[in-house]
């Protein structure tokens, strides 16, 4: 075996050792009684996010967004939740970005939230609708100068020739964002995911995890049905 192969084997073993040594839920976790859950998943989601924030979970409004292209090939990324209300879960991006193009081709998505401080996660699946230009502009107007500057840079997911090119475009966008706090970004689009299924997972140190799944009934009048899932 060459020295390079031996070094590679050692690195791999060190990595596996690290993975097995990392603590999981080394704090007391809250109890969740599914019998007390509301009939609608939205109030429970809002409660859990608030409790995760209070428990110190960093950036509890971050989430993973999974989409698929026209062929069904999936992709996933992390972004911010902008709102969650009776319409659904709100997020935004450029409609010209990879996720924007995938949502145009296949308007379905899944969201994932994970809050390790409380051992909880929430999974959301449903159909996605793009909001109109006025609502999308209003969404961007509520965000920070940095968020506007990033939106003004645009070209999300395109190939970048060099970091220097990004630096120049970013500096120019920051100056414009400060000068024009209401600068329009035509590609910026607010999306709303209308959930068909929402699962709440409460971790347990003994691995007796509680999984409560909400499924939207076929008729709007029937609301939601709930079921417990094996962990």
UniProtKB/TrEMBL annotation:
All copies of domain Pyridoxine 5'-phosphate oxidase dimerisation C-terminal, residue ranges? 188-231
Q: Could you confirm whether the keyword Cell division appears in this record?
A: no
Q: Report the residue ranges that make up the Pyridoxamine 5'-phosphate oxidase N-terminal domain in this protein.
A: 50-167
Q: Which UniProt key words apply to this protein? A: Flavoprotein, FMN, Oxidoreductase
Q: Which EC numbers does the record give? A: 1.4.3.5
Q: Which domain of life is it from?
A: Bacteria
Q: Which cofactor does it need?
A: FMN
GO terms (molecular function) for this protein are: pyridoxamine phosphate oxidase activity
Tell me the protein family, please. Answer: Belongs to the pyridoxamine 5'-phosphate oxidase family.
| Protein name as it appears in the record | Pyridoxal 5'-phosphate synthase
| Source species taxonomy | Bacteria, Bacillati, Actinomycetota, Actinomycetes, Kitasatosporales
